[in-house]
Design a protein that fits this description.
135 residues, globular, two-stranded antiparallel ribbon, 5 helices
């Protein structure tokens, strides 16, 4: 891995689009007010660190925390689509490192309840393991 090279992340999650979107936040500050950019909702993933009123981290931004936990100094723009019923795909880029902790939090907060319902994505689990082993 070349430091500073963008890392393309594509994560398939076996959960309905509505459940996955609950962990994203529209960012009207950076985008067109009629067409927001979506970012990870950092308050839902890190409630002890980010305020509910600042889910995109505009006022609580901290360089050291972001680079250590997100793999970049800024939160990524997230593209999401439902490729088939009940299967959602997140596409985003991190600038320096895989955001392993972020993926773990998504699984823990957003998808851990889905394991007991039989909707766990083995692909998503593999992505986490690959990123953890590769960092």
């Amino acid at each position: 891995m070349v430091e500073g090279a963008p890392l393309l992340n594509a994560v398939e999650i076996h959960a309905p689009l509505s459940e996955v979107c609950a962990y994203l936040a529209p960012d009207y500050f950076m985008g067109n007010p009629n067409r927001p950019i979506y970012r990870f909702n950092l308050h839902k993933l890190y409630p002890d660190h980010f305020w509910e009123v600042d889910p995109c981290c505009h006022t609580s931004w901290n360089y050291n925390w972001m680079t250590e936990n997100m793999g970049a100094k800024w939160t990524p723009n997230v593209s999401i689509q439902e490729c088939e019923p009940g299967v959602s795909v997140l596409d985003y880029t991190t600038e320096w490192l895989p955001n392993n902790r972020h993926l773990e939090r998504l699984l823990f907060f957003g998808l851990s309840k889905d394991k007991s319902q039989g909707r766990t994505s083995s692909y998503f689990d593999r992505v986490i393991k690959i990123n953890l082993e590769g960092s």
